[in-house]
Amino acid sequence: xxxxKGAILAQKVTEQERKIQLRxxxxxxxxxLFGMVAAFGIAPQTDATHVSVQTVTETLALPSIxxxxxxxxxxxxxxxxxxxxxxxxxxxxxxxxPQDIQTFLSSNRDTSALSQLRPxxxxxxxxxxxxxxxxxxxxxxxxNLLQVEKQGDAFKATEKAAPLVQDVQMKSGKxxxxxxxxxxxxxxxxxxxxQLVEIFSTDIDFHKDLRKNDQFTVVYETFHxxxxxxxxGHILAAEFTNQGKTYRAVYFQDAQGHGGYYTPDGKSLxxxxxxxxxxxxxxxxxxxxxxxxxxxxxxxxxxxxxYGAAIGTRVKAVADATVAFxxxxxxxxxxxxxxxxxxxxxxxxxxxxxxxxxxxxSKVSQGDVVAYVGMTGMATGPHLHYEFRxxxxxRNPLTVDMPTAFPIAAQLRPQFQATSRAMLTRLDMxxxxxxxxxx
Length: 439
Hints:
- There is one protein chain.
- About 20% of the residues lie in helices and about 35% in strands.
- The protein has helices at about 1-30, 70, 85-95, 100-105, 180-185, 190-200, 415-430, and strands spanning about 75-80, 120-130, 135-140, 145-150, 155-160, 165-175, 215-225, 230-240, 245-255, 260, 280-285, 290, 300, 305-310, 315, 320-330, 335-340, 345-355, 365, 370-375, 385-390, 395, 435-439.
- The strands form four sheets. Strands 11, 14, 15, 16, 17, 18, 19, 20, 21 and 22 form a ten-stranded antiparallel sheet that branches. Strands 10-9-8-7-6-23 form a six-stranded antiparallel sheet, with helices on both faces. Strands 1-2-3-4-5 form a five-stranded antiparallel sheet.
- It starts with a helix and ends with a strand.
């Protein structure tokens, strides 16, 4: 009996040892390759409060550095341009040696890019640890890359087109007060906002048709150089919802490089005439047969539309044309008359001046700047008087039917449809999100 009890007791002790060993095995096998053993390898009922800790400090020998290495080492430094910065301010923040700053300024007084410092852009300089300027580069607002290299005791500056990498961005916005406020809120570049207006200007009168909660979505090109945004390019696709009606446009370019905007089914959005010769303004006097003239103090017809705008505002040709008249004419003051195809012509009055290089017989394209708003002739304030004439008779430019351009050619339709589908997918993707932009 005693032997039997002893065997049972020995068996229990052996079983307990196995369990302890198994715990250790499980703990060790669950440790990551570089894990802490102490975190897992503690047996049950072990007192870990009196574990001794010993700190070991060793001195490691560092590789020897030549004494003159720091003096010859070169570094790239970068500074972002701040509002009000001068070239001297930037060079000081780049820790350039004062003597090199003076030499740099005297060597590059005539470099045009130095006068185009735009807040937010960056300037990069390669220097020694002591601040000696070796080279400098800066991408100007016009997309040119300014490079300055030290040659002897002077600096040599060169300008060339910056190497650009194309990217595509998508942004959307909703109008709360004005289109420009909405595009600013969506961080849409001004150049892209102006394209948006031009694309839909034949369907939407941006002077009087915009409403609160109108929405837009834009897919457009951007160009970068060395990771820095340089400029925006074409709008590739756009959508504008005005008073509940949605308009869509897709950019398509043929093999000869001729591009334009079309509806998703291939109809050209380019009318033969723009609805307005100004990008943004307000109508101060409409087309009417009875208006009290503010200067002549009598009732008479007003066979045109007056757009209020600041002196110097750009006036654009509403269609391809030839200059038929430019000069002074009675109450019009400075007047420009453009002759278009067929029986169409347009007139632009009260101008402050004409575009440089323009003369009688000049050929202009739709959208070209041809003149500038003024208040010459019989005008009580700065504005543009605009007339749309058919066979010499003035017609209301806000209501007259504008002829359209030709649709996509049949042989180009498969290529256009492939481009259109890809762009419309992007518009749908952004419309289905709550984001203001996607890269």
